[in-house]
Specification:
By secondary structure, the protein is an alpha/beta fold. The chain contains 13 helices and 24 strands.
């Protein structure tokens, strides 16, 4: 059986065929759930078909994973790091093909698709170093001949539920750390990007097999809400990392909390860029374009609100509209394309509904605002003048829509930045040190990512990634994010073999 279109034949290089079982369970590929199609968002044509997981598949996978956890956590951390290093090498060897698949199935441009896979490779490198630095602490004890210390141990299994917009990078942010920390991983990829899930899993599986390790150390499922719900409710999974909307994230958190599990949530962003009167306008405009239209506005770190000082408002707006007119839309696999399609037909319909709501709430569309006549899910990058008090501004329309507003003072701009429920990323463009340090301090941005003179997107793996409020509070990738994937024990050791005497008690 061959692919329907010649341009899909490269998928065979990364283990993807026209028909694919969507579960990697106990070292085997199988699936007994519904048959679904993976669709190219540029033309809404089928790429391949995948058989999703059933609940029976899920249970079989978790039983095997629970057994594998006993083996994996016994392996010394540096040895686990060596396995992750090999996973990174396997991904690096297929970087071009995997990146092309991400672009094909998700719809982001090729440079972003390759960049996403590179993030997992980089996370593997980061995790290898971390595998020799998972350190505890020695704490002074107030009791004679006692020592107190902190010990970090694996949790057992980490569940990772990822979203369509970063179909493999988010796995890397979580799985690389979880594995070196001694945990097995259960991954449920996004339902609309099953081929990415399969291709990445096959590379991981080859590394485990080559090292004679149980395949169940990395268990993956293609599936929908039923599998995600099972992961959320499963007491065998102490930590669930979920990336997606605030609405679904809240449901996941409630399910995990009911069994006293832990959640790592990466949810919605409603990110703002502030341009002060002293800013480098050219730098700011280029940054806004990059942050607002990249991935067709489907990043969690996309710039959705632009706050401009009134003294330069018209200048910034005119320059921004001019560069928007130069944006090339089209097939994301073509090198000259800057903006690809939205991911699904439903996303395109949501864009249309969102534009109607914007107009109803007084928004003035300066450029864009329409869908594009084509077989795919293309929409025009859009700039809207609107009041910061409009309710639609408080929500996240997952597309290339930028709300622009003016302000008079720094304090007003900060208040506008912080006025939305979400708190992921934020940026300010200024040359004034006093403004910079107010912005990153307690009276500045309330976001998890607080930038100066760079866009809201493009976070580096060395820093902890995540946000506050309705963004969920989770942190992934760098800094001390690894601590979320382990359990901490405070240990007190009495090496003097004498206990304090209890007044008036005869132990005799």
């Amino acid at each position: 059986m061959s692919f329907e279109r010649k341009e899909y034949q490269f998928l065979a290089e990364i283990g993807v065929g026209p028909a694919n079982p969507g579960c990697y369970i106990n070292g085997e590929w199988k699936a007994r759930g519904p048959l679904v199609s993976s669709v190219n968002p540029s033309n809404n044509q089928r790429i391949a078909v995948v058989t999703e997981a059933s609940i029976e598949d899920y249970e079989e996978g978790l039983m095997a994973c629970s057994e594998a956890a006993k083996t994996w956590m016994k392996i010394p951390a540096p040895k686990r790091g060596e396995i992750v290093r090999q996973i990174g090498e396997a991904l690096r060897a297929k970087l071009g093909s995997l990146g092309r698949l991400v672009s094909l199935e998700m719809g982001k441009i090729l440079a972003e698709g390759i960049g996403e896979v590179q993030e997992i490779v980089d996370m593997c490198d980061y995790a290898v170093g971390l595998s020799r630095q998972i350190n505890g602490s020695i704490i002074p004890s107030e009791r004679p001949d006692h020592m107190m210390c902190e010990v970090w141990n694996p949790m057992g299994i980490v569940g990772v539920i990822t979203a369509f917009n970063f179909p493999c990078a988010v796995l890397g942010w979580n799985a690389c750390l979880a594995l070196v920390c001694g945990n097995c991983v259960v991954w449920k990829g996004a339902p609309t990007t099953p081929l990415v899930t399969i291709a990445v899993t096959k590379l991981v599986a080859e590394v485990l097999e080559k090292n004679n390790l149980p395949g169940a150390i990395f268990t993956s499922f293609c599936g929908g809400a039923e599998i995600g719900e099972a992961i959320s409710k499963d007491a065998r999974i102490p930590l669930v990392s979920f990336t997606g909307s605030s609405k679904v994230g809240l449901m996941v958190q409630q399910a995990v909390n009911q069994r006293f599990g832990k959640c790592l949530l990466e949810l919605s962003g409603n990110n703002a860029i502030i341009i002060m009167e002293d800013a480098d306008i050219g730098l700011a405009v280029r940054s806004v374009l990059f942050a607002a239209v990249g991935t067709a506005g489907q990043r969690c770190t996309t710039c959705r609100r632009l706050l401009v000082h009134e003294s330069i408002y018209e200048t910034v707006l005119n320059q921004l509209i001019d560069v928007y007119k130069q944006v090339k839309m089209g097939d994301p696999l073509e090198k000259s394309t800057l903006v690809g399609p939205l991911h699904t037909r439903a996303s395109k319909e949501n864009f249309e509904k969102g534009i109607e709501i914007i107009k109803f709430q007084g928004g003035n569309i300066l450029i864009g605002g329409s869908t594009v006549e084509s077989e795919g899910n293309f929409v025009q990058p859009t700039i809207v003048e609107i009041s910061p008090n409009a309710s639609v501004v408080k929500e996240e329309l997952f597309g290339p829509v930028l709300y622009v507003m003016k302000f008079q003072t720094f304090e007003e701009a900060v208040e506008m930045n912080n006025s939305v429920p979400q708190g992921l990323s934020s940026s300010i463009f200024t040359r004034k040190p006093e403004v910079i340090f107010k912005w990153i301090g307690p009276h500045g941005s309330d976001c998890g990512i607080v930038n100066v003179n760079i866009p809201t997107n493009g976070a580096e793996i060395g820093g902890a990634f995540g946000g506050e409020k309705a963004t969920g509070g989770g942190r992934e990738a760098g800094s001390d994010s690894w601590k979320q994937y382990m359990r901490r024990s405070t240990c007190t050791i009495n090496y003097g073999n004498e206990l304090p005497l209890a007044q008036g008690i005869n132990f005799g």
